[in-house]
Amino acid sequence: MRLKDKVAxxxxxxxxxxxxxxxxxxxxxxxxxxADFDAEAGQKLADSLEDxxxxxxxxxxxxxxxxxxxxxxxxxxxxxxxxxxxxxxKDGWMVKMTEEQWDQVIDVNLKGVFNCSQxxxxxxxxxxxxxxxxxxxxxxxxxxxxxxxxxxxxxxVIGMTKSWAKELSPKGIRVNAVAPGYTMTAMMETVPDKxxxxxxxxxxxxxxxxxDDIANAYLYLASDEASYVNGLVLSVDGGQVLGS
Length: 244
Description:
By secondary structure, the protein is an alpha/beta fold.
């Protein structure tokens, strides 16, 4: 087991990539904290895993993020891994984007990563080791039409990842990010079939990503196999940029 007896918090774990990450981490021996705003789906997932708890969290609120970390430590006595997976989209053309659309995405996708990582890093510093993994995106590397707020948040996550890798590595904490390409999750369900077909055709592998593709990248980076990997942004996109 690659994560035997490790304690992992996964935000946005009630569905999609976060859910699959929680399942794979649990399979590999981790004690998993399912952190999500969706209490019903989150508790259902926690109940289905061998050693897991659910914690309701609003990552955009520092008090909620602090309480999430506290509950994890109260339950398991330590924190080895934080996966900052929670994220939302509120798309729109730049000239039509509302302040509310901007603020909501920045608050969850960027501020939320900071809110969760700060108390987690403090605990990991006391332990002398830990791993923080952040979800960025292909959009955070190359931008995208209609996603000014999302792109800004994901570019920001990359900046925090590299800064924290420099700050925290002397304390034994590795910090890396995963940049998924277009992945078949609930976020993609509203995308027209024609657009999805074009995305598949534009990818060298001829398909879109699956949650397992991203979850397995998190697994590698969380494991001791990646003990010398720090400050990396790992693209998991099938070579999307090569086909564009």
